[in-house]
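Q: What would this chain look like folded?
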Amino acid sequence: MTKRIWLQLAAALFLLTAPHAADAWHRGAVETFAILPAFAPNAGACPNGAPTCTSDIEGVAVAPDGTIYAPSFGFDKSGALTGNGELFVIAPDGTVIRHFPVLGSSPHLIGGIYQPSSNTMLIPDLIKGVVWQVDPTTQTSSVFMTAPTVTTAPGLNAMAFDAEGNVYVSDSFQGAIWKTGPTGGAVTAWSQSPLLLPTAGPGELLVPPFGANGITFNNEGTAMFVNNTAYHSIVKISVNPDGSAGTATTFTTGINAPDGVALDGKDNLWVLANQGDEVVVVDPTGTVIAKKGDFDGIAPDGSIKGLLFPASDTFSPDGRFLYITNLALNLPFAGVPAIAVDSGWTLKVNAYNVARIRTQLPPLGRDQGRE
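A: My prediction, written as structure tokens:
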């Protein structure tokens, strides 16, 4: 065999085995990690008077031991549930261990973060404007903080911690980031900016009409990133040396309704596009470097295949997996005066779930933001 033929064979082998640029954009598989059971709402009722019903879920959080927590958002394919919200506790293998009502809450719980110092869940209540502190062991709940009403009723949403354990929560309706201490109580306005509002211009419809949504600090704690769902943007808020908020600027735009966000060890932002049914990975320069997941339809049993209105995400403790809630919300049920392109599919869902994807971008693990 001539030298030329050997070179041609070697070149062909290289093309077959070398990594291609397209590999970085391989969306990968979306696994159904846990399907949530039906329940009878505490102090309330199911749509259409049914004795039990399922509920969509918005928030997700993971404890250091790998236990997953997801509160109900209070809608199914027929409409809104009433009564208290429900908290689902899921084992690391995807088994739903138990679920119980968050006493005193509205049915519409959103977001949530696990606080290791107290071994409790902190869960925003979209309707009541409070954050509940819930003990998963005793199944008791108390008010952790209450947001003030400045311009309109608050719409508490996503949460994050700083290095000192202070707690931050986004307000989707008032365009604010509220701050309180590790034990809750008094609240201050850490940041307020027009960039965090969902304000529409004349004749303009912003869908979903949520401003400040998912939040996370970078690994050094020198900046907070905030998703503005309505404006399809990520806002960057610098952190001053004394911990106060600096200037808010638009970091990047173009994501189809950015909702939840999780931060990896390389300061990449794993952003959920709730109207794009995908995970968009954005690097520290604001550039997309990968896209994961997609909507693959509804299974015959009414369960979701892939991603459908993904809302919140968080990494497993070892960083190998990203857990994602499929909100699958029919927007008109929540008062939005128009359907979205996936609204028809949400009306076919009988079983709501937590999904997961393999991250494949190690090392990962540090996750401070949800929702």
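The chain has two helices and 28 strands.
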